[in-house]
Structure formats: C-alpha cells, structure tokens
Amino acid sequence: MEKLVACVQKKPDAVCRLICFPWAGSGTSQLAQWGRLFNDSVEVFCIRLPGRETRLEEPFAKDMTTVVNEITSVLLKELKEKPFAFFGHSFGTYMSFAVALHLKKKYGLEPVHLFMSAAHAPNSAAYLAVKSIVLPDEPNGLLAIMEILGGNFELPLDEDLWRATALTFKEDAKLFQTCSFEKTEMNVPFSCDITYFCGSDDKIYDAKGWRELTSGDTSFYELPGDHLYLLKPSNESFLIKHMTRSIENGL
C-alpha cells in the first residue's frame, strides 16, 4: 500500500477518499499535498507508479493493464470500505478512467464523482490520434511529444532533472499508448457525475465526449493558466472547494 500510494495526512474518520492520478513524467509530490488542504471529510491518496520516488529501483510499467491490476488489487479493500472519487490530470486522466472502467466491470464499484483534467475524452477521435503518434528516440523529438501529450508548460532548467523527467515522461507515453478503451467497455457508462477542468492557455482538448460516458451530470470549467494550471494557488483553492462540495453532494 505505502509503495503504491502517497497519503501525507491520514484521516480515518473521512467519509470519502479522493484518489489522485498524476500527469506524465511526474510523481506524487504535488497532488499528495492536497491531503493537507481538504477538510477532514476527504482523505487524499495519490498513486505512485514504478520507476520514480520510492519506487525508483523498480522497472517502469510496460502496459496499462498491469498498472490497473496493481491499483485495483492493492486498493480494493479501501475502495469497498467507503465511498471514493477520482481526480486525474492529463495522462492521469486516462489512467484513472481505465481503473474506473475495470472497477465497474469486474467489481460493480463506481466512484461518487470523476474529476477529469486537461485530456481528450477517451471516446474522441483526438484521443485516438494522440495514441497513434510514433514516439521518437532523439531528445528533440521527445520534446515535441511532450508538447503534444502534455500541453503547454515549462520544463525544468536543470539538465539532470530534465533528463530524469524526459525519461519518465517517455515511459509514461509508452504506457499511455497501451490504453485500450474498447467500444464494448464504453457501452457500460457510469452513473456518477463527471467534472472536466482545463487551463485557458493550454492546448484545446476534445472533452465533449465525457457526456456520453455517464448517465449523471457533466460539467466543464476553464481556469486561468497553462497545462499545469492546477498548481496555481488560486486555481488549487477553487478545485479543492469545488471537489469537496461535489463529493459531499454525491454521497
């Protein structure tokens, strides 16, 4: 559990857990801190993939099925124990959706709310187009891929940090390309509400398709900023208030 999940503030009396799925090339350092910002009703878990942070010595995951199976098997007890919601940003959106589909199909479990951010809807042509991009080996080509997959954001100036980020990003991009949202799976829509967020200065994402993936309500919010708009304190504050209200209303 500690290997897969970062939880900076345990809240045994919380009424709901928010499981966060970070963006490509990153770890748990940013989203896990949300655990200190939510009130006592929401406990925050952030997913940590192999190949980074305390899992640095482990080989990167090779396919999304392996990732989904690890997350569901490790967290199944917690997910059955009390209500949960998902937040995914960029690459993390696709990972969270893959986990949500698996939980619904195999265990009949569903989040009380899906919060998706800065990503194409998985039933859109834009998603399929990004998924089919050939990943280059040379560093300059990788930079272009980072812009396509990751949107507009500043990269680290430190060369060693840039190299480490680029390597992790490339492995996450390979992982993203193993996502497979089959039509049969998509025919089992969710009943929970879905909220979609994006940055006003980021690239344009095709997000309309989220409406087709749930019988619940779907809402869309554009916040000021680039691909990592969610790290701006004012946006972070908005997200946390909005998610708290949505979660409490969904219980």
Automatic annotation (TrEMBL):
Q: Which GO terms describe its biological process?
A: lipid biosynthetic process; monocarboxylic acid metabolic process
Highest taxon listed in the record's lineage? Eukaryota
GO MF terms here are:
fatty acyl-[ACP] hydrolase activity
Domain (Thioesterase) spans 17-244
Q: Which Enzyme Commission number(s) are listed?
A: 3.1.2.14
Q: Which family does it belong to?
A: Belongs to the thioesterase family.
What PANTHER family does UniProt report for this protein, alphabetically? S-ACYL FATTY ACID SYNTHASE THIOESTERASE, MEDIUM CHAIN, THIOESTERASE
| Record protein name field | oleoyl-[acyl-carrier-protein] hydrolase
Q: Which organism is it from?
A: Calcarius ornatus
Organism lineage: Eukaryota, Metazoa, Chordata, Craniata, Vertebrata
Whichever gene encodes this chain, its name is: Sast
